Predict the 3D structure of the following.
Amino acid sequence: MKHDVHIAQISDLHIAGSGEGRQLQDFDRMLEHLNVSGFDHLVISGDLSDRGRTEDWEIVRAKLESHGWYHWEKTTVVAGNHDLIRLEEEMRFYNALNPLQGLRARACRQRAESFCRFFRELVTGGDDADARFPFIKMMHFPAATIGIVACNSVHAWSPTDNPLGARGNIDPSELRAITSPEVQEALAGSFVIGLCHHALKVYGTDRLLDQAFDWTMELKNRHEFLQAMVEIGARVVLHGHFHRFQTYRAEGVEFVNGGSFRYASSRYSVLRIAGDGSFTQEFADVPS
Ligand SMILES: [Fe+2]
Ligand SMILES: [Fe+2]
């Protein structure tokens, strides 16, 4: 019998250089465990780096390579705000008399393109030309065809609209692209998984202080994003950003927040997809 497709998800690694030996050892342990357990695919839902350094991406790439995960059909990554925005630099160079928001937005887009080019093996299978967001991966496993639809949800830093760099927004052109008739046609008959870094739901508390900060973390155009996910028939959306392992449903779509590998480095999400289109999700731990 064809076994179900097993997809693991980790998120928010926040790698900060090679000095953090324990975290890197835990990463080795995680990838080894996923190999031994026979996972078909791994998704990393953003914030690979803590301070937007390419060196951190290199560490992630090297770890994936050394465990045999650095292949298009084995791993998918998207960028998080910490990958694309260097908050200290933004603040240092910000000049209130000369805000140049358009330039800042362009720089953020270019950084997203750098991310896709850097990880082009995982985005396009190695071709440089189309290594950008949004990207679609159609993967054929014996039990099912999986379509991963990945968007960039990182919103450029702005002193008024995005002061912490943590607020998300998906460019409307990306949403238009993924809902185009050609993409819909390509996705037909597959199990569709949406992927971005930011959360659809902001889980604050009733405390006023939390509520005051909620807007700084939210996905600005979450309603449009959800609408697009419904339109393409996404069954599951994977994301991170909130550093909490949680699931919730909206409009019949299951959302999985992959938590944070940095703060819980043995925990990960397991998605099992059967040939009849049914699926299960649970959080699991690497045995110690
Ligand atoms: Fe994060
Ligand atoms: Fe984040």
